[in-house]
Amino acid sequence: MSVDDDQRGDGGDTATSTAVDAGHSLEILIVEDDESVADLIAFKFETQGYATRAFDNGADALAHLEDAEALPSAIVLDLVMPGLDGMAVLERIADSTRLSAIPVIVLTGRQDDDVVTRAFELGADDYVTKPFSPAALATRVTRFC
Amino acid sequence: MYSGDESDDLIAYQVRRRLAGIMGRTELLLEGELGPLAAEQQRALEQIERDGYELTATLDAEPAAAASGVAAATDPSTTGALEEPAEGPVDHLLVASNRPPFLEALERETAPAGAEVTVVTTVTDALAAVETNDVDRLLVDVLFDDRFGLDVVDRLASDADLDVPFGLLSTVHVASEPPRVGVSAVVSTDVGHEGLGAALEFAAGTSAAETGRTVGLLGGDAVSPLRPALERWCSQVVSVDGWFEHDSADSECGPLELGSEAIDIVVTDFESFRQLEPADIDALRRRDGVSRPLVLAASTAADPVDREWIPLLGAPQDPRPIDPVGLIGDALASHGHERRWGHGSDEAIPTAPGDRR
């Protein structure tokens, strides 16, 4: 179920990705510092035919997005991460005309009302709290794809 | 230091993170996405899923409700404030710690079990409480503002009338390791077979049936009284004293090699431990890079604990709380069960490893 180490993406040690078939644009970007959870999400989407790319911090994810030729279909974004956290990533995406159209689904253990409100204010398209159902998460994400 | 609300939030957040992996994978298994299941496997996973939902519901409970549970747990006069007093044995548990993460997690763990809990935050108060002889169990932290928690352990060891099983809570860790418990369990050198077996079980985190393993004994005469009991519990007891005699040509193995030796648990005494070099401690505490359980045999009041061992273990440099839920959950696995550790008695001496249950 783990993402093969040989398939690490452009982000070096901090990123993992599945191979994207030629012409297959349905990629889900996972930004999650918990490897166990990132692995679980990647597995669920891959079984549904999506490609995935995972980063364990916001800075590397943003650097990838800024350089990427093809943008992901959706982003699953954790909030609490080392370095650039999820709220800052949301803010940068919202400020970028190129990136702001990408649907962002926040997935986090934080469920305080003010955090939820702030995430939506910053442009989150949906908000899912941990623990979560992989099937429900996939449904909520793929409706944007 | 964290405030009560902050540590509550932190603990809840960490539990949610771990639950995400557990429940997510349980769902994948139940949905058959990882292969077909036998009926028994299916039922077991369904139970795991139900437990996960219940735990999530507990986390989702209103903070006010949790706060009333805390009050009830810390003040016996308000026990009625608990919504549903749990059935089962009610012990008087004394908790001595000045760390909010420990205390908050403890209250979460004990309130459902219906335990009467007294919390003290100084060693002076802990000593006064154990003197009342009204304590069934003790969980004591090591580092306090006034004195060392080991003073309480010494007091118990010095008085046969104070037969209180104890657990040691500690964030003391080897400096080169990630935050973790440096000492897995502490026993008094005159601990009984049952108490020693429970300490090994607690240290290794396995059931008694799996405790038949190899123990490395370090400390010569200081720990030799433990050997007969250890031999009942473990498949092999090996002296590793010679390995730490750096100038001895007779040494079978050097301390660094101990890091990869097939020794599952190390039992030593404070004095031997105090004399070790940091690299030796690292070799003791780690086996192939994985933490190895370490049981310290505490001296009695006749031979006071030398507190210099604490800096050798490494002060808790990292202010982050270290998984207090898991820590206290492990410690309280004894609550309402037979599992005990610490200053135990000689009752129910087993005839063979794993013959205890």
Describe, in short, the structure shown.
The complex is a heterodimer of chains A (145) and B (357). With 145 residues, chain A is of the alpha/beta class.
Largest sheet of chain B: 5 strands, parallel
Helix content of chain B: 25-40%
Task: Supply the CATH class of the largest domain in chain B.
Answer: Alpha Beta
Overall tally of structural domains of chain A: 1
Per CATH, the architecture of the largest domain in chain B is: 3-Layer(aba) Sandwich
Arithmetic mean of pLDDT of chain B: 59
Give an overview in words.
The complex is a heterodimer of chains A (145) and B (357). Chain A has one domain (5-142): Rossmann fold, CATH 3.40.50. In chain A, 35% of the residues lie in helices and 18% in strands. Chain A has five helices and six strands. Chain A has helices spanning 35-47, 58-67, 86-95, 113-121, 134-142; strands spanning 15-17, 27-31, 51-55, 74-77, 104-108, 126-129. In chain A, strands 1-3-2-4-5-6 form a six-stranded mixed beta sheet, with helices on both faces. In chain A, helix 2 (58-67) packs parallel to helix 3. The longest helix of chain A has 13 residues, at 35-47. The relative contact order of chain A is 0.16. Chain B has 357 residues and is an alpha/beta fold. In chain B, the strands form three sheets. Chain B has a five-stranded parallel beta sheet, sandwiched between helices. In chain B, strands 2-1-3-4 form a four-stranded parallel beta sheet, sandwiched between helices. In chain B, strands 9-10 form a two-stranded antiparallel sheet. Chain B folds into two domains: 4-60; 69-334, Response regulator (Rossmann fold, 3-Layer(aba) Sandwich). The radius of gyration of chain B is 21 Å and the shape is globular. In chain B, 39% of the residues lie in helices and 13% in strands. Classes of the chains: A alpha/beta (145), B alpha/beta (357).
